[in-house]
Amino acid sequence: MLFKKDLNRKMPISSIGIVGAGIVGLSTAMHIQRELPRVPVTIYADKFDRATTSFGAGGLFRPNVDYCKGVDPETVTRWSKDAFEFFSSLATSPKASDTGHMITPGYVFSNTPIENPLYKGLVFSFRDLTSAELQKLGVDYKYGYQVTTVVTYVPKYLPWLMAKFQEQGGLVVNRTVNSLEEFVGVHSVVVNCSGFRSRDLVGDKTVYPVRGHLVRVKAPWIKYWVYTEDSAYFIPGFDEVSLGGIRQKDNYSLDINPKDSEGIKERCYKLWPSLKNAPVIGEWVDLRPHRDPVRIEYETMKFDKGPLKVVHNYGHGANGITLSWGTSRDAATLVSKAIMEPQARL
Ligand SMILES: Cc1cc2nc3c(=O)[nH]c(=O)nc-3n(C[C@H](O)[C@H](O)[C@H](O)COP(=O)(O)OP(=O)(O)OC[C@H]3O[C@@H](n4cnc5c(N)ncnc54)[C@H](O)[C@@H]3O)c2cc1C
After folding, report:
1. Closest by alpha carbon to 18, among 198, 200, 191, 195?
2. Which ligand 1 atom is at minimum distance from the Cα of 288?
3. Domain spanning 4-340: CATH superfamily
4. Is the CB of 195 under 6 A from ligand 1?
5. In terms of one coarse class, where is the protein primarily found (predicted)?
6. C-alpha–C-alpha distance, residues 223 and 239, integer Å
7. How far is the CA of 304 from the centre of ligand 1 (A)?
8. Which of 45, 115, 167, 262 could cross-link to 21 by cystine, CB 3.0-4.6 Å?
9. How confident is the model over 258-292, as pLDDT tens digits?
10. Is 252 annotated as a binding residue?
11. Domain ranges of the chain
């Protein structure tokens, strides 16, 4: 039997390449470094930190089986549990101010009953709200629950992941990858964490954009988040509160549309009047990389230059922050499997 330790010793010429330095690429890199500590890992990306989709996300940990079409509920639960354990361990540790993990209470409101939410068994606390409590909060919804979960402040978490990766010997190359064929004969295994751009990089046209838009306001009196079923929500970060949102399928525009801004503000002010006087300090638009199902898969790709072992980890849609830690662990397991297999001759 070949143990990981032996694997690392016996395969000194192995190396792994990762395309992507968003939350998925960096989380995958961390798991690979844990599983295969002696195998060199290089991240290739042309966007880092604030230029990634990950950077601007609200960061709310909100697991939901319905958001992961095509993945069996047990797997979504396992990914979510894995992520919550990790994020909550950071949030309750002295590292929290560096990693950006905040234990944050909040409310979900809805006009349809919320059956068995995945939140229930996972987070710090969960309970249904009574109609009297909904009334006291002044909201016009029939159902609601109060949840204490973790918010990941991604502008802190991404640099922390990157620093960890580099401290552990990881290399970073700033360049655009035009084809994975560039890695044939260079890396033993390549992990594709290119998010939305997998459409072009591996020609996967089942990845589609769901355009999002957040309005950032200065509202230090807001210490909780609120999520509703009809596209009005807000999530506090370290220094600002993000108001959302929109979900525009197949819209590729990265421009700020003033009509969307007004709609978001109007819905949020109606939901939560205390936001009304909060000064707007910024706005952000990006594309959620949707795919049904999210792709966590190992394949040998064939190119003119030869075969290449590729593990895919992309298409996290509206759940990239929530699912990143769990899907990346599975991707790293596939990398360990791939690296042990002899290279196919095609
Ligand atoms: C408005 C909005 C709000 C959101 N809120 C939440 C939330 O509250 N909770 C939650 O869980 N999720 C949320 N999300 C979803 C989350 O942001 C995404 O699912 C996640 O960021 C996807 O991460 P990623 O690493 O796959 O992609 P990205 O962050 O886009 O990273 C992709 C990386 O791949 C690199 N890359 C791609 N192609 C190439 C190439 N050809 N050559 C070189 N480099 C390449 C890029 O340079 C980049 O480094 C939100 C998204 C939006 C838009």
Report:
1. 191
2. 53
3. NAD(P)-binding Rossmann-like Domain (3.40.50.720)
4. yes
5. other
6. 11
7. 30
8. 45
9. 999 999 999 999 999 999 999 999 999 999 999 99
10. no
11. 4-340
Question: Residue 5 has what pLDDT?
Answer: 45
Place of tokens 């190359």: 173
Structure tokens at 132: 């009297």
Residues 6+ apart with CB under 8 A from 256: 213, 283, 285
C-beta of 58 in contact with ligand 1 (< 6 A): yes
Tokens 């629950």 belong to 145
Between 5 and 102, the more confident residue is: 102
Task: Tell me the best of 46, 86, 228, 251 to mutate to test the pocket of ligand 1, counting ligand atoms within 8 Å of each CB and taking the most.
Answer: 46
21 CA to centre of ligand 1 in angstroms: 9
Percentage of residues of the chain with pLDDT beyond 70: 95
20 within ligand 1 shell (Cβ under 6 A): yes
Residue tagged 């509920």 (tokens)? 73
